[in-house]
Amino acid sequence: MAVEDFGATSYSLACLETFRPDQVKLDQAVVSAVANAGDHAALHQLVAAAHAAGVPVTATRVETAAQLDALRACRCDVLQGYLLSQPFPARWIDDTQDVIAERARDLLP
């Protein structure tokens, strides 16, 4: 089970113990706000809380280098967004699998 919009409310942290999700997806407002120094601390706390519960964190709609840097610094597990790749048909995966893996290795710490 995945929890969407993680970090949107104070209830988000409680869901880690209540539901024991397989993953959480950060709320878009959290991802968008990482350019602000104060919100970077909040992002770090959310990711750390999920990791402490053994839950991987996904960030979607990563669109800027500042967002990418902040999310990588906070050790987000999965990053998705236009900065990393434009959407493409599933049939292209076989043709581009090696390219995708190489690009992912270049982006991860």
From TrEMBL:
UniProt-recorded Gene Ontology molecular function terms: cyclic-guanylate-specific phosphodiesterase activity
Signal peptide: none
Chain ranges of the EAL domain: 1-101
PROSITE patterns reported in the protein's UniProt record: EAL
Domain of life: Bacteria
Listed name of the protein: Bacteriophytochrome cph2
Record organism: Ralstonia mannitolilytica
